[in-house]
Amino acid sequence: MSSQTGSHKDVSEKHLPSAQDSTAVAEVDENPFADPGIPHHEPRVQDIDERAAKRSERTVAMFFIVSMLATIAFIASFVAFPVDKIFYLFPLGHISALNFSLGLSLGIALFCIGAGAVHWSRTLMSGEEHVQERHPIAASPETKAAAIEEFSQGAADSGLGRRKLIRNTMIGALALVPLSGVVLLRDLGPLPEDKLRRTMWKKGLRLINQNTGEPLRPEDITVGSLVFAKPDGLEDDSHEFMHEIAKAALMLVRLEPKDIKDKQELDWSHEGIVAYSKICTHVGCPVSLYEQQTHHVLCPCHQSTFDLTDGARVIFGPAGHPLPQLNINVNNDGELVAEGDFAEPVGPSFWERG
């Protein structure tokens, strides 16, 4: 038992700091879990040798400069490498040149900023440890003044104002690296330009029954029926079908001309046949429910309801605009054709329309 006690005492004394006052040693002897205090501060070579400090400063600056170069390489890679460029790299195999270059350059840029900050902190900022006792959340004026003084002292210890090379290269690295995120916006696709404002419909283009694939004639549409149409030349198996039908989808209803209240709607119809965009002006769902008695069409997603006898105006639901109407007529062969494009953009109201 005495041997174990002596061994325990030896181990405790072995791990005590070399520089301790007698009070702390006595406390540890009585309680092995007592706070031994802060070890004596040992100065770093940078604290006593200005040449070593300059070397550390150049090292930190080098990290920040490499980060700037890597960010520039990131942007250059986005421009230089096409999306479909593939190359072989052992042992990874065949990989995308664009993805590899973007990942490598951005990784280096971020790593060098972190490595530079860590090296700066470990070699040039103040290395002394300070103990601050816990205090109430509501600080006294004296504590606030002490905090401001400590902050000012920390700023002075960092050498940010004195070591301009580090400051300027760090600012450059932090200013350039956000450009990586800006450049990534290119992957959102090309700018829409006027693609959202126009569709495939143009003067003389025939209306094709979307179910039969045949040109529509006035006699094909009876009073009370709902017919869906697409532009002539848009094939279901074509590459651009989904892009174009999302804007050009059309529905036709035959009304009694005397029931049509809106003058433009009557002028743009043919023998009571009116053609409206099938795309709801709320969030773009396909309008496909028709009430024969009321001549209302409903969107199944959020129950927006449009009155086809009154310019397809909204009478219920969250839609903000009437359905755009397509001006139609017949050609020399008696087939329904468009007189032009929709008068306004189809689909959700993503901007205020004049």
TrEMBL record:
Regarding the membrane, this protein is recorded as: Multi-pass membrane protein
Q: Which SUPFAM superfamilies match?
A: ISP domain
Q: Say yes or no: keyword rRNA processing present.
A: no
- Give the matching PROSITE patterns: RIESKE
Gene Ontology cellular-component terms for this entry are: plasma membrane
List UniProt keywords, sorted A-Z.
2Fe-2S, Cell membrane, Disulfide bond, Electron transport, Iron, Iron-sulfur, Membrane, Metal-binding, Oxidoreductase, Respiratory chain, Transmembrane, Transmembrane helix, Transport
Listed under subunit, the entry gives:
The cytochrome bc1 complex is composed of a cytochrome b (QcrB), the Rieske iron-sulfur protein (QcrA) and a diheme cytochrome c (QcrC) subunit.
Record organism: Streptomyces tardus
List, for all copies, the residue spans of the domain called Rieske.
Answer: 242-337
- Mind telling me which CDD domains this protein's record contains? Rieske
Q: Give the protein's function.
A: Iron-sulfur subunit of the cytochrome bc1 complex, an essential component of the respiratory electron transport chain required for ATP synthesis. The bc1 complex catalyzes the oxidation of menaquinol and the reduction of cytochrome c in the respiratory chain. The bc1 complex operates through a Q-cycle mechanism that couples electron transfer to generation of the proton gradient that drives ATP synthesis.
- What protein name is recorded for this chain? Cytochrome bc1 complex Rieske iron-sulfur subunit
Which parts pass through the membrane?
60-83, 95-118, 165-185
